[in-house]
Amino acid sequence: MIRKTAAQMADALAKGETTSVELTQAHLDRITAVDGQVKAFLHVDAEGALAQAKSVDTRRKSGEKLSPLAGIPLALKDVLAQKGVPTTAGSKILEGWCPPYDSTVVSKLKDAGVVIMGKTNMDEFAMGSSTENSGYGPTFNPWDLTRTPGGSSGGSAAAVSSFEAPLAIGSDTGGSIRQPAALTGIVGVRPTYGAVSRFGLIAYSSSLDQAGPFGRTVLDTALLHEVMAGHDPKDATSINAPVPAVVAAAKSGDVKGMKIGVIKQLQGEGYQKGVQARFDESLKELASLGAEIVEVDCPSFEYALAAYYLIAPSECSSNLARFDAMRYGLRTGDVNGASAEAVMSATRDAGFGREVKRRIILGTYALSSGYYDAYYGSAQKIRTLIIQDYAKAFTKADVLVSPTAPTTAYKIGEKVDDPMAMYLGDVATIPVNLAGICGMSLPAGLAEEDNLPVGFQIMAPAMQDHRLYQAGAALEAALLSKWGAPILDKAPALGGSK
């Protein structure tokens, strides 16, 4: 049962072929069996999950009309507040903290009867691309346990890829859903900025952060997207508009007549040979389905990486100032006669990891007197140019595409001492966040060099998220027919059946 899709599990629940308690217990058993190697979870709430599952079963037995995902287990990134459950954002500075409230996303999941099994590992405060920056140790890629699953939502992606959960939620600031989805062979979506509430999402960079779904298929991801999206008056950046019909789009999967734009700047030089080969093959599949392939030019994308690594650290410098040892979280250095400044300094030094400190320092510098216009102000101008480039490109194409990441999963420790090499892994995903539009990564096959998954990225205009699912479902069906089996069935023992 744990190898079925979430949609298939939901169908089995509706037909009475299994119960949510049985389904949840099966996944908890899987976590017990393999998570000692994968280390996807920071906290497993077995008692709470089984109680949620039992409640759904009781409601279903009474004849209550339930949501499509009622009773389906889910893994939650440890950046979303869940009442009474440890929520650390992967940081020692929040070790043991249990929020007194639920984030809006968690409230929506509970209302839909989705069973939250526990909190997944992540790069500390979502700062990283490999989950090696967690204060609690790295997560490992189920395809090859010597490699990273990507980040910062690596724990959530690894949980889905290793069959520990059929669905998961991550957050995406510069590609932190799409990049780990690509590296672990699953589907991940960053919805339009403001389409999913950020209330209760521990902030890294407020103008870029966005929670989104992981699944093993495009349809599974669409089902979760519809549950978690929607307007929230508690979030000032929330969009007051209907949720796009992403499930209907995922079920249609028709790209005949659709114009698909290939971004000139996001392919070719610097991309692994196998990544480029799978991308080119996917384009041919879409063309064979009746899509029109066109090339689009987005010259400002050349500066997206530099702009992002000024804007995001600047916002993180401001957001993380709240962790001051005065209100909640870690407190150290509190000896007789110690000043508030001394306690704050000692606590932040002990509680924050190396990457978080690096970004706080960079952001504080960029915002400092005399440098604001030269750095932060200039980066915001680049952001405007990127938005304009997307607007022009979408006059020529319905969706835009690129490889999700320039390489497949790299070895644990390979780039941890070279921040620039790590940052370059986000080159194809960052423009989406800067523009506030939506993006999806889905599996495009395996690279011949290392037999590891390659991701195919689809981008669509703001609040046109359904276009991602329409194009993604079409490509997924074509590739599935070509492969003869889901890509996860081609993974080693931890990932799949072969």
From TrEMBL:
Catalysed reactions, as listed in the record: L-glutamyl-tRNA(Gln) + L-glutamine + ATP + H2O = L-glutaminyl-tRNA(Gln) + L-glutamate + ADP + phosphate + H(+)
Amidase domain span: 22-468
Keyword check for Ion transport: no
Any one GO molecular-function label of the UniProt entry: ATP binding
A GO BP entry: translation
Main EC class the enzyme belongs to: ligase
InterPro entries xref list: Amidase, Amidase_CS, Amidase_dom, AS_sf, GatA
An annotated GO cellular component: mitochondrion
The protein's Enzyme Commission number: 6.3.5.7
Record bears the keyword Nucleotide-binding: yes
Alphabetical keyword list: ATP-binding, Ligase, Nucleotide-binding, Protein biosynthesis
Recorded family membership: Belongs to the amidase family. GatA subfamily.
UniProt protein name: glutaminyl-tRNA synthase (glutamine-hydrolyzing)
Organism: freshwater metagenome
